[in-house]
Amino acid sequence: MADFAGIRTHTVIIYIARWFGGEFNEFTYRLVPLICAVLLTWYAALKPFKEKYVYIACFWGLAISTIPIIVYYSSILYLELPAIILMTIVCINAEHLLTHDFDEIRKNAAWYALILIGFIKENTLPFLLCFLVLRFVIRVFYSQSGGSVLRRFRDEVVVGYGVLFPLVLFVFLRWQFLDMHDDYTEITRLLDFKLYHVFMLSFLRQIGVVAILFIPAAIVLWRGKKHGMLIFLSLNIILIPLFHMALKAQYTGYSRFMLLLVPVFLAAANITFSYIAEKNKRAVLIIVSSCIAVNIYMTPLNFDGTKKSFWGNPIFDTSEHYYPYRKMIRWLKKNYNPGKNRVLFANNGYPYRGLQFYLLKFNWHPFHLVSNDTDLTDICRKAEKSDIDVIVFKPPPDHPEYQPELGCDYNFEHKVRNTEHSLITYKRADQTDS
Description:
Layout: H1 4-10, H2 13-19, H3 26-49, H4 54-65, H5 68-73, H6 80-92, H7 94-99, H8 102-105, H9 109-120, H10 125-142, H11 149-177, H12 193-206, H13 214-223, H14 227-247, H15 255-258, H16 262-277, H17 281-297, H18 325-335, E1 342-346, H19 355-361, E2 367-370, H20 376-385, E3 390-393, E4 410-417, E5 422-428
Parallel strand pairs: 1-2, 1-3
Antiparallel strand pairs: 3-5, 4-5
């Protein structure tokens, strides 16, 4: 479970959760990303086919919903999914937004999606700057409509203000209230060609076969003389990864930020399918069915619903590790008296405040300590000093089968596990049954 303490005190998610099954139901915290994934699929699938080919749109929607990176983040409460919905709307309508004057584009709902992007995520900066620079060049130097060059220049200042002000405000507030001072850009990282190898492997694993549809889309755009949209989509494929690579080497291929590439490829797929569907509907069904099959084969999920460890994190471990705390707390509640027994949750390696979520969920409130120590001697010392009755040991993520002998007066008692990870209890040798 995510940082429940942070959610509880700093957001309104807890109140929304109470409306949908209670604040201790995990599903309610996954509802927002799930709804975002459904909206993204609905918009991107219906756009190229409209009412004419509803059955094809349903298949394409299934293909979108099974893209590995979409599957992975459709149940995790991050802001990237709401952002990519807006970015997808912009990408699909990019030709109109890039080439028409301000009075025209502000009648388009995609304009409002564009100005909302900056309110949601600050790392959409390369996307927004790419749009503004390209639109400025097209409108000021190549457009024959919209009056004089001076008037067109003035209009682009207005557009730039509308697009960038929300982002500037967001970044300012985040700098004021959150720690962003560790993020810094180092352009020299872009000369490390090993990072490009990491990026390509991550790209293929996370976005998969859908990315191939960009190639025919580029040909269609070029032949249709929609050069602005082609350049816009192409530049984003280049600039978004480079921006994160320059920000931190660890961000190279990191799936959470690779999500920002999804709108480009969904827009490209829409162009490809719109073109092919007019000529051969069967070919579209074959392509979409192939996408679904490959996506399912590449899924980041295990059969028990847990996510594969280290998926989408090629350089550093910031994965969503799924330890069976729910099963463990349920077992502890059944076997230990919260009024008598003292518990140590050990070898966390990092603070896991989500533990409190499950203690509250199962209404089990023993005296408990949490140790982030990874050294077995330190864990034993802390347990003995605090008169602990049972130690709940968490094996490290990269060694899920690790089951050590603690080397102190605590013996193995019980183990619970899922496909990816396990939790182990060690009972004090002189402990009588509760």
